Amino acid sequence: MIRHTYLPILLCLMLASFCLAEKKQIKLKNGETIVGEVVEQTPEGIKVKRSLATVFYPKDQIVSIEAIYDLKEDYADRLAKLKKDDFKSRMELGKWALENKLHAEAVEPLEAAVKIKSDERAKLLLRQAKAKLDAAQAAQAAKEPSGNGSSGTGGGASSTFDFKNMVSDDDIQRIRMCELGDKDRVKVELRNNVVRRFLDQVRGEGDFEKKGADAAFRRRSAGWQAKYIIEHVNADDPIKNDIIIKTDPSSMRVFRTGIWRWISNSCAASTCHGGAKGKGGLKLWNVAGRSDKVAYTNFLILDSFHTKKGLQIIRRDEPGESLLLQFGLPDTQAKHRHPKEKNPAFSSLKSGVGKQTKDWILSLKRPLHPEYNLKSNPPHVMKRIDAMSGLPTSPIPPAKPGKGGKEKPKPGKTTKPPF
């Protein structure tokens, strides 16, 4: 009885103790947890600014209100303020990210710092960041269920989440290969004498005409060899099956640690595209955890989806036209406005999250979309946008027939071998 008497008093004190326009986590009596900006408080309750609308929550429905400090948003803001050639600031940001266990985020500024200046301290911090990132990803992979399903909820879906709905491990490999950038450093495994088999295919041609080219190629790192082979064989060459990319390319790492974070709190909310059936034909999987399959499935959905008017969520040939940017802007700035009233995800394309999203789209392989050659077809992954647009999708030229009529890759003809 005493507890019931003091509960309204405690809630009143709680409601009066926080600042407006700050992001809060509100727990309700029905078990729901709300994250948003508290924009108004009254004796009757609070108004919370969410992704699609401002919602009022009565005082008697609230269990607790807690302030949220988002480390990753803080990181994104700090990163956006860095000058291009500022070695010291990038070192400090990388160190700060490491200290706060943001291992994936620490890699980007430290890689940039090493490129600006060949500094041993920066190289050491970069090695530490990559080692900790590899360890974290390995630990997550070990936790991922080996069976068909896993318990977990997200986006208003059923309490049972089935990994059969997600893209396959083989297709994750295909996406990683296609999105691998020239400057990406990834952990790879080369199986079944793949280097020897590749050299047998290209011996005496292009880069491999000169004496000693084979030996020089073998001296390069496994990651470099993998990139070269991927770039110089046909899109469907089975030799690719023996190149295993164990870590994300930088574009996918940024998607998982930065871009998806704001999407999951806005577009993929349970009241929007993260609901059991989604909205407007677009369904995203807002599932707790960092599963590769969930992350890559959501990326494919965003990468593939187009509206009835042909507008794309991610447009590689004209990034500024991407609905991911347009719908995230305030209506007064957007060329293409969201069909429903919503709160903007970022104030401008020069803000932390807005700039990060635009830079991320620019980091994807473009202007032509690479040919993923996907084998699986998980639910809600829409028809490939490249097939609809009719644009060519693969930069790899068709191979010329070799001996016995077999196709051979084109290793390229240069005056000086790149190895």
Mean pLDDT: 75
What is the percentage of strand-forming residues? 5-15%
Helical residues, percent = 25-40%
Spatial strand order of the main sheet: 4-3-2-1-5
Q: Report the C-alpha radius of gyration, rounded.
A: 25 Å
**Largest sheet: number of strands, sense, barrel closure:** 5 strands, antiparallel
List low-confidence stretches.
1-19, 144-160, 383-406
Structural class per helix/strand content? Answer: alpha+beta
When the domains are counted, the total is 4
Oligomer category? single chain
Number of strands: 11
**What letter string, H or E per element, gives the SSE order?**
HEEEEEHHHHEEHEHHHEHHHHHEE
Distance between the termini: 79 Å
**Overall morphology:** globular
Helical segment count:
14
Write the layout of secondary structure elements.
Layout: H1 2-16, E1 22-28, E2 33-42, E3 45-49, E4 54-58, E5 62-67, H2 71-80, H3 87-99, H4 103-116, H5 120-143, E6 149-151, E7 160-162, H6 169-179, E8 188-190, H7 194-202, H8 213-219, H9 222-231, E9 243-245, H10 250-265, H11 292-304, H12 323-326, H13 352-363, H14 385-389, E10 400-401, E11 407-408
Antiparallel strand pairs: 1-2, 1-5, 2-3, 3-4, 6-7, 8-9, 10-11
What report would you give on this structure?
- This protein is an alpha+beta fold.
- The protein folds into 4 domains: 2-68, SH3 type barrels; 72-143, Serine Threonine Protein Phosphatase 5, Tetratricopeptide repeat, CATH 1.25.40; 169-248 and 398-408, no CATH class; 250-383, no CATH class.
- The protein has helices spanning 2-16, 71-80, 87-99, 103-116, 120-143, 169-179, 194-202, 213-219, 222-231, 250-265, 292-304, 323-326, 352-363, 385-389, and strands at residues 22-28, 33-42, 45-49, 54-58, 62-67, 149-151, 160-162, 188-190, 243-245, 400-401, 407-408.
- It has a 5-stranded antiparallel β-sheet with strand order 4-3-2-1-5, with helices on one face. It has a two-stranded antiparallel ribbon with strand order 6-7.
- Strand 10 and strand 11 form a beta hairpin.
- It is globular, with a radius of gyration of 25 Å.
- 33% of the residues are buried.
- Mean pLDDT is 75; it is low at 1-19, 144-160 and 383-406.
